[in-house]
Design goal:
Structural class: alpha/beta
Order of helices and strands: EHEEEHEH
Radius of gyration: 14 Å
Distance between the termini: 45 Å
CATH superfamily: Survival protein SurE-like phosphatase/nucleotidase
Number of helices: 3
Helix content: 10-25%
Largest sheet: 5 strands, mixed
Oligomer: single chain
Length: 114
Amino acid sequence: MKKHIHPKIFITNDDGYNSHGITVLIEELKKIGDVLCIAPESEQSGMSHAITFSKPLKMKCMHQEDGFSLYKLNGTPVDCVKMGLDKFYKEQNPDLIVSGINHGSNATICAVYS
């Protein structure tokens, strides 16, 4: 019998770890895989390419259960991705990285910086 392997899914956003959009995304993706979510502790819209240099990054686990972990980070969305890849996916990359669900529009020029 073939063992079913759950895909490893990494989620982040720019609206913060407790935004409605990320909560919906987490609930849906938990149905198909093991989810790790690291998102900013506060809203970070417009910070898409920013990396934190001026202060130490601090990450806190907000929820953990079998197949799901949620962390908040006092940095930007890029900091969240870098932290996830460096700390949790050092040996093997996630199967899927998802950002969103966004609050507001990321249309036209906004897509460049959000």
